[in-house]
Every structure is written in C-alpha cells, then in structure tokens.
Amino acid sequence: MLVENKTIEFKREYVENIKNTIVAFANCDGGTLYIGVNDDGTACGVDDVDGTMLRLTNAIRDAVRPDITMFVECRNDVMDEKPILCVTVQRGTARPYYLYRKGIRPEGVYVRQGASTVPATEAAILNMIKETSGDSYEAARSLNQHLTFNKAANFFKKRKVEFEKAQMRTLHLIGEDDTYTNLAFLLSEQCTHMIKLAVFEGSRKSVFKDRRELSGSLLEQLEEAFDYIDHYNRTRAEFSGLDRLDMRDYPPEAIREALLNAIVHRDYSFSSATLISIFEDRIEFVTIGGLVKGITLDDVKLGVSVLRNQYLANIFYRLRLIEAYGTGILKINECYDDYAVKPIIETTGNAFKITLPNTNFHSEEQKALNTLKSGISTSLTKREERIDTVLKLCRSKGSIVRSDVEMALGVSQSTAILLLREMTDDNILVKKGKTKNLRYYENK
Which of 70, 254, 295, 354 lies at a 20 to 30 A Cα distance from 341? Predict the structure, then answer.
C-alpha cells in the first residue's frame, strides 16, 4: 500500500494548494501527486476526471514560473476500481520554481520536508539559484520578478538604442527560462544596490558638509552621481595677459571614467554600497569587489581587462558609455599628464579604490609654498612681520585658528596653513585639538 512520503502526496480532491506541492516536487527530487485518494492511501475517486485534469493543467501553466509543464505528466488511472488522477513531476532544471503571484520569496517557493510541503528558506532559494545559474551574478535569476524599466527605457531612447522585449533577451535581461535576470534587476527601478556620496570639510572624514544616497536603475544612478560630483567640481580662473583660463578642480573625463569603472566592475553579489567621498584636496571612489582572480594591479594599469560583469559592460558599450574594455584607467592617467599630482589606484582582496587629486588645490598649495619659500629667501623681514603679527594675535586672543591668520594677514588658506605649520615645527606655536576644534597657542 502506498504511503505519503517525500515523493508521494495524496489529495481527496482538487484544491488550490495543489500548486504548492507541484512546485515543491519540481524543486526537490520530483514525486507523484494522487488526486482522489484519502490520506490513508485508500481511493475515494474523482467525480469529473477530465474537468479536474483541465483545471489542474491550466493552473500549473498559469501560476508556476518558470514554465514547468515539460516536467509534469497528468494521466487517468484506476485504484480500487475508482477513477483517480496521477500527476508525476520530475525535478526541474530551472530551479527555484515559484508561484508567479508570490514571487521568488519563501511564500512563493516550496520544497518537500518529509511528507509535507513547506516554504523554502531564503538560503535554500539562493542555493537553488546558484546551482542552476552558476557563479555569475548578472546571469542568475532575479529574486524580484516584478520589475519596471521606465528610467532604463528613457535612457536607451535618448541614446537611440532599441529596448523592446527582443532586445532585452539579446542583452540577457531575460533568461532562457523567460524570467528576469539579476542584470535586469540592476537596470530596474527596484534595484537596491546603492551609490553613497559624501562631501567632507577639509581632507578628513570628520565633518560632513553634504551627503546623498542613490538607488534604482544603475543608469539613473550614473547620471545623478555625475551631476552631483560635477556640482562640487569647481571652476577656478587664471589670467594670462588678457585671456582668462578656466580650470576645473578635476578633469571631467577622469571623473566620468572613475564613475563608470565603479559601476561596471563592482561585485554586485555583495550588498555594500559604492562609496564616493569628496574632500577639499581629492575625490575617492571605493568599489566593493577586488580584482578578478588572476589579474594584478600592474595588469590593470597596462590596460588589461577581465570583466566581472560581462553583460553589464556590453550594455554600457552599446550605449556608447564606454568605448573599449580596459581603457578606463589609461584615460584617467592621461587626464593628469600635464599635472604634477597623479591619480592613485589601490586594491585589496575585496575592494578597489581610485583617488583623483584636486589639481587646483595642489597647484595653489605649491604656489603658496613657492611664494613662502621665495619670501623667506628674499625678505626675512616679511616672514618675521607675519610671525610677529600672528604671535600678537595669539597673545591677545589666547589662541587662534587658521581663519584668524587668513583674515589678519590677508592671505589664502594654503599660505596660512603653511605658515602655521612652520611656526609649529619651529616650536613658536603648539597646536591642540583636531579638525574643526584645532587651535594654536603660543609656546611659552
């Protein structure tokens, strides 16, 4: 006599949760569902075999994703001279199977636990996805199948690139099982991977001036992040005779390439955000995911590129956001060919960091240093006058900050910093506190 177990289930009649059992069999080791059989294994029969079979097959076709019909066989049978239905389900190749209305979540994905059908855990769901999709994050099936692409569609339209369902298949946003992939998730409004931007006062992460968090389609994040950084990429003017020369703090092309690198090469199997930090003297781009196995930092600097997200990079290539693989770092370095300061690239096992120096800041700092050195060598009196002025100010106020020196001497921030540094090194002043609480006192 048959008994219920991991691969056998009895139902007296057709009920809605039969779909759960079908899904559970396909996600595990397969099994057979008997309709018209009591829990003790005795037959009670089915009144309308053909109608019940039609109802069942329609439900399986309409309610279960991916398409499971090729793994399901329904047939009429007889038990104890009573008509019953036998539904044989094979283990599927596109697991996890789920109820379309519930999605790829525990309430929509079922497995067999002994003789019972139970919701799958999130860990079990992720393991099934990995088993059937391999290690590629972007090719794996998205846990969220209710995705919208309004922002992406507008972006494609602006670039005059087709973005219909056929193109989505070609671009690997829709997989062979007719479900959305993680790549589709990255371009959708529902994308939860974030870019976090912050502006700091000075050159340390002590005082925030502004911050912003971006989520949603990576294409929208790209535009918003670039505009945000560009807002803080100041233009400073110099004059050569009658001509005015406008100089940006950072070469826009270098910002663009660093931002694209952070988005295209990030490891999206981790949930940590991409971090962009804007300081007075530099911008740092920190991306989760180190170098692809087998590639060194020297290889990257030479233009060698092994793509972690091949399909995502291909989309950016079709949208003419990147010209060729492996040229981003080379372009960043070329942007700084005419400057004394250079970009810094660092990597660990799990992160990649690009630091772009502020060319105007370092240029002004160097000019201030040269001016101060020149003033010292040609006129010790001027330096002594400045030191005397600072000391008198310090005695009258008890202590001073950098801005006090700027106002008293009528000098730039960089010149004030250098003078205070020299006076501290010469033990004329002592400094106490840090960052915004830093104050200078006379060394008595």
Answer: 295
